[in-house]
Amino acid sequence: MHEKMKENRKSEIPFAIPQLGDKEKEGLCGVIDSGWITMGEKVARFEKAFSELHGQEEAVAVNSCTAGLHLCLRALDVGPGDEVMVPSLTFVATVNAVLYVDATPIFLDIQSIDMPHISIEEAEAKYTPRTKAVVVMHYGGYPVDLLEWRSFCDTKKMMLIEDAAHAPGIDGVARLSDASVFSFFSNKNITTAEGGMVMARDPSVVEKIRRLRGHAMSTDTLARDRGHAYSYDVTMLGYNYRMDELRAVMGLVQLSRLLDWNEKRRELSKIYRKRLLALIPDVVIPFDQGDETAAHLMPILLPPKARREKVMKQLRDVGIQTSIHYPPIHLFSYYRERFPDIILPKTEEFCKRELTLPLHPLLTKNDIAYVVDHLKKAVEQSTI
Ligand SMILES: *Cc1c(COP(=O)(O)O)cnc(C)c1O
Asked: DSSP letter string over 192-219?
């Protein structure tokens, strides 16, 4: 890590931190010196490297995961009158994208508080002939059962979309779905500051996503610059969701470290689990720790009696930053107004008790001991 970043970190233990260093700086300087900063060869290289890592032919880089979700839904022809099943336990962008295309979100509850992925039983119960797709989300980096969802979607003739913002570089992710979307926002497992990536299994869908990303123009700036094309046509309503060379060059550097960082995150999660179980047995740790996780988050559920705000404040006072993933979407004012009366008991209980502990590859065993020891005290004191 760069010295300046270390200084900025002080004695705090942040819940997430971007890891940027000299390689990223060199890359950025190289792009600036090259004189070509908008979408070009670096973007193409980043797309190729990312798709190869996930066993796919192609990927399309975009300027955010949110934009990628929007493009997937557009390219898969999801629109007015269609229903899309979604979790409420996710970042708001997952469901906003459904509203961007004027489709109707159908919120599904989670399986249980220690298995907080959306439930197939709920999907079965809420399915209607208008249900066109489901967006699953690999909460915390723990992948949903994609085989099970694929077979459910095949039976119902629905499309399967992965919001894979938390799960880059995990075996199985992006292989069975109709489309998958990743995020490179600053707190994700790899970052380009802002950015995203889309993959799809049907090459014609990939092509449509590629077109929609750049105003649905029939030629791109680079081709025109090179004299390969002189004019262009517009065949659909497109957007400017392009990634640029600066972000792509950072992405390439970050991607080369993704698998090591994921491994480090998994190791740290294991250390957390052991210590939490030993010291605070009444917290719930969602998911079984397996090797198939990008360990993006370290979520726990506080005991029902613990007061979360008090716990968070007490931890902040000793330099430990925590977070909440997530406030449930169906309870946000905007969503309540548009979709009143939605009740998801398990999601609501999960979201009331959830606390996200610091997790990033720079964390040490000592940091974890410090966090868990202070958490134990904070939980005890908050319940008095
Ligand atoms: C971060 C995140 C997004 C949005 O990603 P952006 O790249 O910031 O648009 C979407 N879904 C989930 C689950 C996320 O964590």
From this structure: -SS-EEEEESSHHHHHHHHHHHBTTBSS
| Cβ count within 10 A of residue 58 | 17
Query: In a 3-state reduction of DSSP, which class is residue 174?
Result: coil
Tell me the Ramachandran region of residue 340: left when phi exceeds 0, alpha when psi lies from -120 to 50, beta otherwise: beta
For the beta carbon of residue 16, count every other beta carbon within 10 angstroms: 17
Q: What is the pLDDT of residue 227?
A: 80
CA of 182 to the centre of ligand 1 (A): 8
User: Which residues are marked as active site?
Assistant: 188
- Which pairing describes strands 298-301 and 354-357: parallel, antiparallel, or unpaired? antiparallel
- Taking the CA of residue 187 as reference, the ligand 1 atom at the shortest distance is 1
Q: Which of 88, 84, 85 is nearest to 347 (CA)?
A: 88
- Provide residues with CB under 6 Å of ligand 1: 64-66, 90-91, 93-94, 137, 163, 165-166, 183, 185, 196
Tell me if residue 314 falls in helix, strand or coil.
helix
Tell me the per-residue pLDDT of 90-112, one tens digit each, with 9 for 90 and over: 999 999 999 999 999 999 999 99
CB atoms under 10 Å from CB of 119, counted, come to: 17
Answer yes or no: pTM beyond 0.70.
yes
CA of 92 to the centre of ligand 1 (A): 8
Q: Give the nearest ligand 1 atom to 93 CA.
A: 10
Q: Are 249 and 31 in contact (CB under 8 A)?
A: yes
Q: Report d(CA 5, CA 236) in Å as an integer.
A: 44
Q: What is the pLDDT of residue 107?
A: 98
Work out which ligand 1 atom sits closest to the CA atom of 68: 9
Rounded distance from Cα 66 to ligand 1 centre (Å): 6
Tell me how far apart the alpha carbons of residues 190 and 183 are, in angstroms, rounded to a whole number: 8
DSSP state for residue 358 in the 8-state scheme: P
Task: Calculate the CA dihedral of residues 334, 337, 341, 342 and round it to 10 degrees.
Answer: -30
Torsion sign (Cα): 241, 245, 246, 251:
positive
